[in-house]
Amino acid sequence: MSKITSREIRLASRPKGIPTAANFTLARTELEPLQDQQVLVRNLFISVDPYMRGRMNDGKSYVPPFELGKPLDGGAVGEVIESRAKEFKPGDAVTSSFGWREYFMASPKELHRVSRDIQPLSVYLGALGMTGMTAWVGLNLVEVKAGDVIFISGAAGAVGSVAGQLAKLRGCRVIGSAGSAEKVKFLREECAFDVAFNYKGEPVLDHLYREAPDGIDVYFDNVGGKTLEAALAVLRVHGRIIACGGIAGYNEETPQPGPSNLFNIITKRLTMKGLIVLDWLDRQAEFEKEVGGYFTAGKVKHKETVVKGIDNAVDAFLALFHGQNVGKMVVQLN
Ligand SMILES: NC(=O)c1ccc[n+]([C@@H]2O[C@H](COP(=O)([O-])OP(=O)(O)OC[C@H]3O[C@@H](n4cnc5c(N)ncnc54)[C@H](OP(=O)(O)O)[C@@H]3O)[C@@H](O)[C@H]2O)c1
To answer: In percent, how much of the chain has pLDDT > 90?
Structure first.
C-alpha cells in the first residue's frame, strides 16, 4: 500500500484559563509501512471530552498530561484498512485511544472490536462507550434504586443524559439541570426526566426547593461548584453523592473555595464517592451487555452533536466549555 499521510492535532502550548485554538496545531505526518503484528486503522469518529482539559495542564493526575508538540490522544472509533495481525481484518470496526488523528497503526491489544450492526458507530464513544459507562458505574457505585429521588447536573451532556435514562429505568424520580431551554426540552421530551430546569435562570437551590420539597436521595455531580453546594443543602439524611466531574472549575486559574456547607456531610451522614471510569474496565463486558441491550431495545437513546472534519476538532472541544453540545460531542472524519 502507498504511504499514508495522516492529519493530527498536537498540543502547541499549555493554556491558562479557558483554552483557545492557539493552544493546538493541525499537523501532517506520514505513516511508516505496516509491520507484522500491526493493524492500520482509519478513524471514523473521534471523541472530545471535558477531562482532556485537565490533560492540557502539566502535573500528576490519574492520566498523564498531553505532551507539548505531540499528538493528543483520546477515544476513537475507526475501521481497519489493512492488517498484518490475524486478530483483525479490513472492514472491522474498532475502538481505541488513538483519537485526534485520521489514521494510525496499532497492535491488536490496543484495539477493541465492536459490532457494525449497531449504528451509528459513534455510539461507542457515547451511550455504549466511555461516557455511558461512567453513567452506569456512577449509579452502581452508590446503589441507586427504585424510589430514589436523584438530581443530575450537566444532565443534557454525554454522561448526564445516559445517567438520567438509566435512573428512570431503575424506577427513580429524576431531576436534571442544564444550560439552555433546548436542553431542558430534550431532557423532558426525549429522556423522560421527571423534572428538568435551566440553571442559568433562577439559582439551582430555588429550583430544588420547589421541585424536591422533601429533598433528594442522590446527587450525580458533573459540575461541582455552586451546584454541589445546592445539592448538599437538599440531600436527605443518609443521602449519597456520585462525584463524577467538576467542569465548573476546569478553566479556573486558581482553585475556587469548596462548598460553604460541607458540614452537611456530618449532620446528614452523607456518603460522597469519587469515580474514575478507568478503574472499572474489568466490568466493561457487563456494561456493554446491559446498556447495549437497553440501546437495541430502544430503552436508552444515544444523543450526539456531530462536528465534521479534523480541522474542526479543536472548535468542537472548545465548544464543550460553552455548552454547545447536546448529548455526546463527537467529530466525524471524512
Ligand atoms: N470521573 C470519570 O471517570 C468521568 C468520565 C467522563 C466524564 N466525567 C466528567 O463528567 C462531566 C460530564 O462529562 P461529559 O463528557 O458528559 O460532558 P458533557 O456534559 O457532554 O459536556 C460538557 C457540558 O458541561 C456543561 N458546562 C460547561 N461549562 C460549564 C460550567 N462552567 N458550569 C456548569 N456546566 C458547564 C455544558 O452543559 P450546559 O449547557 O448544561 O452548561 C456542556 O455541554 C465532566 O465534568 C467530565 O469531566 C468524568
So the answer is: 96
